[in-house]
Amino acid sequence: MKVVVMHASPNRDGLTAAAAAAAAGAIRAAGPEVEEVRLNDLDLQHCQACNNGWGTCRESQRCCQDDAFPALHRRVVAADALVLVTPVYFGEPSESMKAFMDRLRRCEAPLGSRPGGLAGKPMLIVAAAGGSGNGAVHCLRMMERWMEHVGAKKHDFIGITRFIRAYRLPQIAEAARAMVAESAAGAG
Ligand SMILES: Cc1cc2nc3c(=O)[nH]c(=O)nc-3n(C[C@H](O)[C@H](O)[C@H](O)COP(=O)(O)O)c2cc1C
Questions:
Q1: Are 152 and 108 in contact (CB under 8 A)?
Q2: Which of 13, 115, 161, 177 could form a disulfide with 119 if both were Cys (CB 3.0 to 4.6 A apart)?
Q3: Sign of the CA dihedral 98, 104, 107, 108?
Q4: Ligand 1 atom nearest residue 10's Cα
């Protein structure tokens, strides 16, 4: 079993990184392989909305841009479950997470009777906010809506700030453990 843990902060030592490490550590300890992906390390362009709205994504579930996205798309489709961790910027996911989400949902739109590769895949979403926590719920709501677009199985949505870090990090680990246990039980 393989789980992709994706995070999307420019800060290598911040709350986003700590939340991703909590999830990844718990999953590894439970047995599955973890692939950690730091979106800010990748050459990930934004969607060009080709041809007045839809490009090759509509006809072939592929993006025509030749950057890190096609390989990333294959990696998430090949995974058994996903953890997405984003900082909260302006009440929304960070720019790198949004670029990834925007392009992925287009390539995951069903093609006739063929569903996208993320359909039914369990996902855990974490939003790491600043001290105010303003917009954390809005950020999670945006990501929930996106999960509906890609047909993912919603496992949990967790908001974290530095003030509640001490009890939230163990909850993130527990949620990640529960997701892989449920996924393994479903597959067995
Ligand atoms: C451009 C920008 C916008 C932000 N907007 C919000 C916000 O709307 N609500 C909030 O609670 N924190 C906001 N923050 C604070 C970050 O969410 C917070 O510092 C978070 O921990 C960043 O993740 P990091 O620790 O991985 O850097 C913002 C930070 C930046 C840089």
A1: no
A2: 115
A3: negative
A4: 27
Question: Positive or negative, the Cα torsion across 172, 175, 179, 180?
Answer: positive
Whether residue 116 contacts residue 153, with contact meaning beta carbons closer than 8 Å, is answered with no
- pTM exceeds 0.85 for this model: yes
CATH number of the CATH domain containing 16: 3.40.50.360
Atom of ligand 1 nearest to the CA of 133: 11
Q: In angstroms, what is the span from residue 188 Cα to ligand 1's centroid?
A: 40
Q: Helices 136-150 and 95-107 sit at what angle, rounded to 10 degrees?
A: 20
Give pLDDT tens digits for 49-95. Answer: 999 999 999 999 999 999 999 999 999 999 999 999 999 999 999 99
| Ligand 1 mean position, distance from CA 165 (Å) | 14
Residues whose beta carbon lies within 6 Å of some atom of ligand 1: 9, 11, 14-17, 87-91, 128-130, 132-136
Domain span at residue 20 reads 2-187
Range list of β-strands (E), the chain: 2-7, 33-38, 81-89, 92-93, 122-128, 153-160
Taking the centre of ligand 1 as the mean of its atom positions, its distance from the CA of residue 92, in whole angstroms, is 9
Per the structure, the count of domains in the chain is: 1
Ligand 1 atom at minimal distance to the Cα of residue 9: 26
